[in-house]
From TrEMBL:
Biological process annotations from GO: DNA replication; DNA synthesis involved in DNA repair; double-strand break repair; SOS response
A GO term for molecular function: single-stranded DNA binding
Keywords per UniProt: ATP-binding, Cytoplasm, DNA damage, DNA repair, DNA replication, DNA-binding, Nucleotide-binding, SOS response
Gene3D superfamilies per the UniProt record, alphabetical: P-loop containing nucleotide triphosphate hydrolases, RecF/RecN/SMC, N-terminal domain
GN (gene name): recF
Family indicated by similarity: Belongs to the RecF family.
Annotated source species: Arcticibacter tournemirensis
Chain positions recorded as ATP binding sites: G30, D31, N32, G33, A34, G35, K36, T37
Function: The RecF protein is involved in DNA metabolism; it is required for DNA replication and normal SOS inducibility. RecF binds preferentially to single-stranded, linear DNA. It also seems to bind ATP.
Protein name: DNA replication and repair protein RecF
């Protein structure tokens, strides 16, 4: 699967533009703020119905315009699939595949799998556990069409249980049987998600370690551990034990919404003890493992988007990474860099052909 063409109208800093892409490595070069990352984001949008960087859809519309449109022509097993997205200000976004509009955007997720590696990914390491759960959920939902629905159900059940806890605190009326009913609903959806996350981590971990070792040639030891309250105890038992505490807190203090991933370098927490280059290498290995996982589950290659990838990596790791991703295991690649010379020489050194697009103030040559 690869993206043959993309057309943009009023998307971020692009007024109008279109590109014919290469099935191999596409590089976007240009100055800071030129619009390189915006092009990657347009590809992300077509694949996952949203921006990678900004959750507010209306902010993707070019300043001063009242709509944006994106169209991508994908090649899937030799046949063309056209994906189009448009958004008018103050209206619902429309998403079409081969001219047919989706009723549920979730039905599109996973058809054109994609992995983005960006400097913003550092939030997975330094921010709270929500970022890490978002990472796991993003990977699983691209391979499991029921997963997003299950998450929605869990979150709805969680909101209901929290509302009940609040009303118990406010009214002083506590009905243990009613709470047990809410618990049961939460347990059903929670256990399903837990099983999926645990199974995912089992497959994912060895692939992550393989990529990390390869990228860093064993320079340091890293760890990635899935942490969930449900690993130690049955969810319904956990909820019963927490009932008293939850009534005081007026919210549910245990469940898969507390899951986390623990990252370590040489036995110490990555967030505090990892250098910037080690953190970046860790994130790259995480994303390449995501790529391998998606490829294995889908049976075809996802798109790989590399934003500002050379920053903070030493020459050895940069070269190794480019060798890895240009190798046959990876399909179509999009990569941004401010320096045309740097990217040309890196790819020339490993003997890989590169199609370069020069980006300048929202136009592409
Ligand atoms: N809705 C919008 N309307 C107009 N311009 C926008 C919009 N959203 C973002 N931009 C502009 O897009 C530009 C940023 O583009 P982008 O992030 O693609 O740059 P870049 O080429 O990747 O730069 P860098 O090398 O600094 O990472 C900024 O100038 C920003 O103001």
């Amino acid at each position: 699967m690869w993206l043959k063409k993309i057309a943009l109208i009023n998307f971020k800093n692009y007024e109008e533009g279109g590109l014919d892409l290469s099935p191999a490595v596409n590089a976007f070069t240009g100055d800071n703020g030129a619009g390189k990352t915006n092009l990657l984001d347009a590809v992300h949008y077509l694949s996952l119905c949203k921006s990678y960087f900004n959750p507010i859809d209306s902010q993707q519309i070019r300043n001063g315009a009242d709509f944006f449109m994106l169209q991508g022509t994908f090649d899937k097993d030799g046949s063309e699939e056209v994906v189009a997205c448009s958004l008018k200000r103050n209206q619902k976004k429309q998403f079409r595949r081969n001219k047919k509009e989706y009723q549920r955007l979730a039905d599109h997720i996973g058809l054109f799998p994609l992995v983005m590696i960006s400097p913003y990914d550092v939030s997975i390491i330094i921010e709270g556990s929500e970022e890490r759960r978002r990472f796991i959920d993003n990977v699983i939902s691209q391979t499991d069409i029921h997963y997003l629905d299950e998450l929605i159900t869990y979150n709805k059940n969680l909101t209901n249980r929290n509302a009940l806890l609040k009303s118990i605190a406010e009214t002083g009326r506590y009905d243990p049987e009613l709470l047990a009913i809410f618990d049961e609903q939460l347990v059903t959806s929670g256990k399903r998600i837990f099983e999926k996350r645990r199974n995912f981590m089992e497959t994912f971990l060895p692939v992550f370690h393989k990529h990390y070792r390869h990228l860093t040639e064993g320079a340091e030891e890293v760890d990635l551990i899935y942490d969930s309250p449900l690993l130690n105890e049955d969810f319904s038992v956990l909820l019963k034990k927490a009932a008293e505490r939850d009534r005081i807190l007026e919210r549910t203090s245990t469940g898969i919404h507390k899951d986390d991933l623990l990252f370590a370098v040489n036995g110490m927490p990555m967030k505090k003890f990892g250098s910037q280059g080690q953190q970046k290498s860790f994130l790259i290995a995480l994303k390449l493992a995501q790529y391998s996982f998606l490829q294995e589950r889908k049976g075809y290659k996802p798109l790989l988007l590399l934003d500002d990838i050379f920053d903070k990596l030493d020459d050895k790791r940069t070269r190794k990474l480019m060798e890895m991703v240009s190798h046959d295991d990876f399909g179509q690649i999009f990569i941004t860099d401010t320096s045309r010379e740097r990217i040309s020489s890196i790819f020339a050194a490993i003997g890989v052909e590169l199609t370069i697009f020069e980006v300048e103030k929202g136009t592409v040559k």
